[in-house]
Each structure stands twice: as structure tokens, then as C-alpha cells.
Design goal:
Elements lengths: L3 E5 L5 H17 L19 E8 L2 E10 L4 E9 L8 H15 L4 E7 L3 H9 L3 E3 L11 E7 L1
Parallel strand pairs: 4-5
Antiparallel strand pairs: 1-2, 2-3, 3-4, 5-7, 6-7
Length: 153
């Protein structure tokens, strides 16, 4: 049986930084304009409202994700990524469930996210996990590619 483990770490941890760089490269290939890509804002890696996690399968880094607290009852999924070699195994769904549990344990009742309109697999994953489309919020207002979604936990 494969051993799936999640560990909290800062986004500037060496493994986390590597995963984020892979995610950024993948997004840059899909969304050619930098203004179409939303990652972590400068300095956000040390924001206490952001909790970042690395997902490991059998001790090997397989992906990452974060929960950013927006208010006492609302948070946002950020930087969700599963390495290509680990895809099609249900790990992304497991990562979403883990992040939802973390958010709920912190008192969050509403979880939001943003993804791009060309990220078809992500859109399907989130819809199948119970997220519904909502109007753009925060930094995504006015984006021509952002799709915002929300789920009540």
C-alpha cells in the first residue's frame, strides 16, 4: 500500500519551492501573459494566514497546496499542484480533501478558490468535489481567465 503523507512547511522550503516552480512553469505554458497567472504575492510566503503543505507518496514529493485564511470563517485554496508522474491516481482529490479538513479544523465554513478557464482538469476536479462557480472576488476581479469557485464545508 502506498504511504501518503502531508507535511506543513513554509513555501520557501527547498522542496516546496521546487514544486511551486514546476507549477509556475506549467501555468506559464498555458497562460502566456503573466497577468493571467495568480500565485503567491511577494512576501506572502511568511504570512501567518497562509498554511502550506507538501504531499508525499512513499517519501517522494508528489504535490503541494495551501490554505489562505481570508476571514474567520472563509479561506482560499492556493497553489494546488500534483506532479505529472503522480497524476491519475486520485492524489489531487486526496489533496483537496486534506486541505478541506485543515480549513474546517481552523473554523472555516466557506472555502474558495481560483483557477484558470483553460485548466480543464482542475475545473472538473473542483466541480466533482462540490465546488460551484461564483463571481470573481478579490484580486481576481476583472481577470479574463479566472474562474472562481466556492464550497460550504
Amino acid at each position: 500500500m502506498d504511504a501518503l503523507r502531508f507535511r506543513a512547511c513554509p513555501p520557501d522550503d527547498a522542496v516546496a519551492s521546487s514544486l511551486i516552480a514546476e507549477l509556475d512553469a506549467e501555468l506559464a505554458a498555458i497562460y502566456l501573459k503573466a497577468c493571467e497567472r495568480h500565485g503567491l504575492r511577494p512576501g506572502e510566503e511568511r504570512d501567518p494566514a497562509l498554511r502550506f503543505f507538501v504531499m508525499e507518496l512513499d517519501g517522494e514529493p508528489a504535490g503541494c497546496g495551501a490554505v489562505r485564511q481570508l476571514s474567520a470563517a472563509m479561506a482560499e485554496l492556493k497553489r494546488m499542484y500534483v506532479r505529472p508522474a503522480f497524476r491519475r491516481r486520485g492524489l489531487a482529490r486526496g489533496l483537496v480533501r486534506f486541505l478541506e479538513r485543515e480549513a474546517k479544523a481552523a473554523g472555516v465554513t466557506v472555502l474558495r478558490l481560483e483557477t484558470g478557464n483553460a485548466s480543464h482538469e482542475a475545473l472538473r476536479l473542483y466541480a466533482s468535489a462540490g465546488y460551484r462557480r461564483i463571481p470573481a472576488y478579490g484580486e481576481y476581479i476583472g481577470s479574463t481567465v479566472s474562474v472562481c469557485m466556492e464550497k460550504t464545508l
